[in-house]
Amino acid sequence: MVKDAVCGDCKNIIFFGGVEVYGCASKDSAWNTIPQEDRKKVVEERIPIDCVRFDVAPRDLRIKMREYREVGITKVYGNGSVQLPSEIRQILRIKDGDKILWIRRGREDFSFRKVGFKGERTREFKPHYQ
């Protein structure tokens, strides 16, 4: 039994995508004791569990920990328009009339970028459609 095992560091973790994002290759692991709605959280927030089938994966096979930083809250208006927090507008150099590309990252997770934005470490990101 491995105490405080992290599923994202185990060779048995499987990435499916879709509704059931992660799975475990070991049928008799502690994974089956975790409620289905908590499994994604256990992996991505690196919540330790006790598991008899934990097998540490090489560093390049581990699921990276996601870090989220809250920037601001905006209100959605009747026609779907929203205001961007000023900090985001400054970072992405967004001005009135610029286009925003919305990117779906999973089932209920979205991100966005300014169309054509070239940051310090990123290359230009163009949408597939306009």
List the helices and strands and how they pair.
Blueprint: E1 2-5, E2 13-15, E3 22-24, H1 36-44, E4 49-51, H2 86-91, E5 100-104, E6 110-114
Antiparallel strand pairs: 1-4, 2-3, 5-6
Description of the structure:
The protein has 130 residues and is an alpha+beta fold. It folds into two domains: 2-57, no CATH class; 68-130, no CATH class. Helices cover 12% and strands 18% of the residues. The chain is built from two helices and six strands; from the N terminus they run E-E-E-H-E-H-E-E. It has helices at residues 36-44, 86-91; strands at residues 2-5, 13-15, 22-24, 49-51, 100-104, 110-114. The strands form three sheets. The chain has a two-stranded antiparallel ribbon with strand order 1-4. The radius of gyration is 19 Å and the shape is elongated. 10% of the residues are buried. The mean pLDDT is 82.
Short descriptors:
two-stranded antiparallel sheet; elongated; two-stranded antiparallel ribbon; 2 domains; 130 residues; alpha+beta; 2 helices
What is the helix content?
A: 10-25%
How many strand segments?
6
Mean of all residue-level pLDDT scores = 82
Compressed to H and E, one letter per element, the order equals: EEEHEHEE
Distance between the termini: 54 Å
Largest sheet: 2 strands, antiparallel
Question: How many domains, as an integer?
Answer: 2
Structural class: alpha+beta
Low-confidence stretches: none
Determine the number of helices (DSSP H or I, runs of at least 4 residues).
2
Rg, please?
19 Å
Strand content: 15-25%
Order of strands across the main sheet: 1-4
**Global outline:** elongated
